[in-house]
Amino acid sequence: MLSTTTRGLIKRPFNLKETSCTIITEKKEFFDVATSAIIRHREELEEYIQGHPEFQFSLAPFRTEDAPESVRRMAEAGSQAGVGPMAAVAGVIADLAVEEMLIAGAKVAVVEDGGEASLASDRTIDIALKAGESELSRRIGFRFNDFPIGVATSSGLYSHALSFGKAEAATIFAVNAGIADAAATAVGNVILGDDVEAVIEKGLQVGLNVKGVQGVFIIYRGKVGTGGKLPQMIGVKPE
Known about the structure:
Helices cover about 35% and strands about 30% of the residues. With about 240 residues, it is α+β, with helices and mostly antiparallel strands. It has one domain (about 1-235): T-fold. Strands 2-3-4-5-8-9-10-11 form an 8-stranded antiparallel sheet. The longest helix has 24 residues, at about 30-50. About 50% of the residues are buried.
């Protein structure tokens, strides 16, 4: 996802190992808060994985005890969506960074991590859909006015993340980015088969059955399916 409304705001990248973020806010100090949060929560997650390697490789819901906040949230999101906890890692890290930005006083706190975005803002935020070579990629987007919200997209064709399906895009809008991230994986996993309409309908139901999911947007074999409550759809100019 790309934010397209950054006038008067700071928009900067931040990369750390597998984490590749875009952070948008109104002051540099809040950017620094976000990067510090990302570094700290990543370190805690990495330390936990060293002692619990099965957490990293589980493709099913994982129970945790006495774990860092990031681990607990990943496990909870994965359990709600019926997938492994690592399916929520990018979204959860983004959520945690945004929360700390808000505590520090930010009015605009947007953290996008590899296509999963956590958004809180006192003004409208527009984002563009990024879905590889799909005809709709970077040509349509969504306008957000209600916050906080989490957005995540899974793709079996254009993403580096693990997916068992073949969706061009399975985009989830949820109460936070962790839930959106896990739910997008769950939806993306079932987008497979020749009966396109039936496959899309199944994906919509899978997504809407996850607690905390507000809306689902699917592109499969050039066809679009929507369910639940979606933000306003807009046209955008390709970058």
